[in-house]
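Weekly structure sync, notes
Attendees: PL (lead), two postdocs, one rotation student
Agenda item 3: pending single-chain targets
PL asked that the sequence for the first pending target be pasted directly into the notes so everyone works from the same version. It is reproduced below exactly as submitted, 89 residues in total.
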Amino acid sequence: MGQTVCPVDVICVCSASGEIRPLRLRMEDGDRRLLRIDIDEVLSVKQVQYVGIEAVLFLCKAAVEDRTWLFELKYTIRTHTWCFMRKVY
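Predicted structure, written out during the meeting:
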């Protein structure tokens, strides 16, 4: 698994107040296998702007293949897209 930004499929929930919380994501690993990752905990949520484009960064924790991952997911509000930003060690 590289450190590059890549688009991912995400299942999330939206609260009545409009807050988004990711629950599960699907992405390819370095061997082009599909990984299904259930997010155990969202540790922080931060509103950010990339070149004037509003986004939300989620710091998440999940168990992946018997290891604990900390990683960042970015949700771009205007395009409604999710990206796996990086693993945090």
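Discussion points:
- Residues 6-88 form one domain.
- The mean pLDDT is 91.
Action: rotation student to compare against the earlier draft before next sync.
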